Amino acid sequence: MTSPSKAQIKANRQNAKRSTGPTSIQGKLTVSQNAITHGIFAASTLLPHEDEEEFKLLSEGVAEVYPPIDAIAAGLVERIILAIWRQKRLRIAESAKLNISMTPEIMVEEINDVLRLPHHMRMHANSISEKQEEDYDYWLGVLKEFKNIKIQAAPSNLAQLSTSAPEVYFQLKQEALRSVMTYDVFMKTPDKIIASLESTKKYAEDFVKNNAIKHTAYEIAQHMKFAKLIPDGKSIDFLSKYQVQLDTDLYRAIDAYKKHCAWRMANLEIEVTEEVTEEVIA
After folding, report:
1. What one-character-per-residue DSSP string does 142-185 give?
2. Burial annotation 193-203 (CB, 10 A radius, 16+ → b, else e)
3. Per-residue model confidence as pLDDT tens digits over 178-227
4. What is the pTM of this model?
5. 3-state secondary structure of 49
6. CB 246 within 8 A of CB 65
7. In terms of Cα–Cα distance, which of 269, 263, 256, 254 is closest to 28?
8. Selection from 206, 203, 207 nearest residue 132 by Cα
9. For residue 271, which phi and psi values (nearest 5 degrees)?
């Protein structure tokens, strides 16, 4: 077999260079990037509850800003994506921790300890509910209305009672409607009216007295919600360190990506220049 001449070898080299694709810097970058798919990002583990589509959109968005032009750049881009995703994870975890700590079940146990309540007086979640507080406020308001009422004189001043003490009057009407006698007869019977008002006053007094501790617990719970917006010392220390670590990972990955791209660009310029020079010489 005849060996190729030097002229043939040189010609083959030139043809090979012409067949490898674009010789411009932008062209080489494009071809290189085409070889890197977003599949490498899909290999990153997501937690069961995390949205794969959301992660994909984040990956694509980051890749648009920091194109994965080669395998090394792709690895750095993946580090950037994961750092951002983990920062989001941290925010969600912090929010979840705060939400859990603010649940009535958790807070009421802390309140029981703060108030040092004995076992038979310890409260449950419903003790600090909005409904419980509304009931307390209502009957407290009824008691305030009674301060300006002369019960014995009320039967002859029902019209005035209806305007000066609307909640007391409402309770009186409810008692009349529940009575075995007709509503009109009840509202015209002084003994019934007086007995109803005294019963309502007694109920209001007992309710306010028996639920005063729950009212106090409710107020503590409201203040506790604001206090819990700041995690405890141990949590703050952990969250702060982890946030710093994620920030460091993110900034280092971005810096490394930029340096790699600068190096890559410089080498492409040299490569393109050499190819152009060889073509001119040829």
Report:
1. HHHHHTT--GGGGGG-HHHHHHH-HHHHHHHHHHHHHSSS-HHH
2. beebbeebbee
3. 999 999 999 999 999 999 999 999 999 999 999 999 999 999 999 998 88
4. 0.61
5. coil
6. no
7. 269
8. 207
9. -65, -45
